[in-house]
Amino acid sequence: MYVCLCQGVTDGQIRSAIQGGCCTYRDVRIALGVGTQCGKCACVAKQIARETLGEE
Ligand code: FES
Description:
The chain is mainly alpha-helical and 56 residues long. It has helices at 11-19, 25-32, 42-55; strands at residues 2-4, 9-10.
């Protein structure tokens, strides 16, 4: 599922980025560019990042 249409970032990519070493939503944003244009996806992207971080 696409989370960020501006940057073409999926929920799977957010999860992979965290599994690959990103420790915060901020790291994910820097790594993938998610939420850096219109910002509409920020809420959902943050939620996915938090859920994934919480599971580990
Ligand atoms: Fe993510 Fe626009 S949808 S920045």
